[in-house]
Write a structure and sequence with these properties.
Elements (H helix, E strand, L loop, with lengths): L3 E6 L3 H10 L6 E7 L3 H5 L5 E3 L2 H5 L6 E4 L5 H11 L3 E4 L7 H16 L6 E3 L7 H11 L6 E8 L6 H4 L21 H11 L4 E8 L8 E9 L5 E7 L7 E7 L2 E5 L4 E6 L3 H5 L11 E6 L7 H15 L10 H17 L3 E2 L4 H14 L6 H5 L11
Parallel strand pairs: 1-2, 1-4, 2-3, 4-5, 5-6, 7-10
Antiparallel strand pairs: 7-11, 8-9, 8-15, 9-10, 11-12, 12-13, 13-14
Helix pairs in contact: 4-5, 5-11, 6-8, 8-11
GO molecular function: nucleotide binding
Protein name: Oxidoreductase
Organism: Nibricoccus aquaticus
Length: 388
């Protein structure tokens, strides 16, 4: 095989990926088919085989791999179906709505591979290609920062209007989307959190459910976390603030890293905090510092980079940037934060996936949200399908 014939199911966000492939920005991939129930969306890809359903595309024999970019709940079922059809799979974030479903999807992949069928299974965590986060990972994971003490990430530049939430019948409901800002806007941030710092062991979160919008899911979150080594963290996000902030601050034994406005600054202590604080020096003294500043010309390969890596993994066995199995961790973090707010308690990780699945089912059953045809279209008639 010299090129991978890929199909894209879901032509909202999936249209972006399909166009990248058509433009030749994902070497190793050929767009062989698209699937979407909307005939007008399929018509935007003339010359490419179009199908009304994913099942028809999977059975067509025209594709070797599939990119799943449909609403969240369908990721699990379509992923399992595609894997069983012998296809390599790349799934948009989040890989599933809740941990129990994510585990089912991952288990299906493990089972099929154990039975002798090689299938590359990846997730669209494109922020892992960003040179800013790669530099932070180098400094944190490589030991330059020293023992982690505290992490604080404020991501409140996700502002959304009422029209955005009204733009789809599945948006901002427990039944349709399974969550709000944590499930839609922040999976990348949550993935980066665990990728850079590891998975916390305890979470205590306060969520505003419909705090700023007429929705039933969370649009405002403040979460305190604890790591196994004793470090603590604060994760703050919202879709109701503007202009908003995106600032990541990391404190370690050897200094502080701050990432904001396309600039990473590592202020290094010339003497470790602990050693200096125990020294017989003036009470207000502090270690001398030096400053490293990192900037980049762009934000890396992003979606095209993940697509190219997916093809390389299939064709040449290259390591995946974002194995789908790692997508379980960001789903678990989101679930733990929501469950903590629902139950008004600190939640320990690993999360009890069955408990969360039951609690979510209860929220769905109790929901009184009804979206009319008018609200589905959105007041301005805008199509936000390509937006998080």
């Amino acid at each position: 095989m010299s090129t991978v014939r890929i199909g894209v199911v879901g032509l909202g966000m999936g249209a972006l990926h399909a166009n990248l492939i058509l433009a030749g920005k994902a070497p190793g991939l050929t767009l062989a088919a698209v699937a979407d129930s909307n005939v007008e969306k399929r018509a935007k890809f003339p010359g490419v085989a179009g199908f009304a359903t994913a099942a028809e595309m999977f059975a067509s024999g025209l594709i070797d791999a599939v990119l799943i970019a449909t609403p969240h709940y369908s990721h699990t079922g379509l992923g399992i179906e595609a894997l069983r059809a012998g296809l390599h799979v790349l799934v948009e974030k989040p890989i599933s709505v809740h941990k129990a479903d994510a585990e089912r999807l991952i288990a299906a992949h493990v089972e099929l591979e154990a039975a002798g069928g090689r299938r590359v299974f990846a997730a669209m965590f494109n922020q892992r290609t960003d040179p800013y986060y790669l530099k932070i990972r180098e400094w944190v994971g490589g030991g330059a920062l020293g023992e982690l003490r505290r992490v604080q990430w404020t991501i409140t530049n996700w502002f959304r209007t009422e029209a955005y939430y009204a733009s789809g019948h599945w948006r901002a409901t427990w039944k349709g989307e399974g969550g709000g800002v944590l499930l839609n806007q922040c999976p990348h941030n949550l993935d980066l959190w665990q990728w850079l710092f590891g998975q916390p062991v305890r979470v205590r979160a306060h969520c505003g459910f419909g705090r700023y919008h007429a929705i039933e899911v969370e649009d405002d979150v403040t979460a305190y976390v604890e790591f196994a080594g004793g470090a603590t963290g604060l994760f703050v996000t919202s879709t109701g603030e503007t202009p908003g902030t995106n600032r990541l601050e990391i404190a370690g034994e050897n200094g502080r890293i701050v990432y904001e406005n396309d600039r990473v600054v590592f202020t290094r202590n010339e003497t470790g905090m602990t050693a200096f604080s125990r020294a017989a020096t003036e009470g207000f003294a502090r270690p001398a510092t030096t400053e490293d500043v990192f900037t980049a010309s762009d934000h890396g390969g992003q979606h095209a980079g993940i697509l190219e890596n997916f093809a390389a993994a299939i064709l040449r066995g290259e390591a995946l940037i974002a194995p789908a199995a790692e997508g379980l961790r960001s789903v678990e973090l989101a679930n733990a934060m929501i469950l903590s707010a629902w139950a008004d308690e600190t939640v320990s990780l690993p999360l009890d996936g069955a408990r969360y699945e039951t609690a979510l089912a209860e929220k769905i059953a109790a929901s009184t949200v009804v979206k009319t045809k008018q609200t589905q279209a959105g007041k301005a008639g805008n199509d936000f399908a390509k937006s998080f």
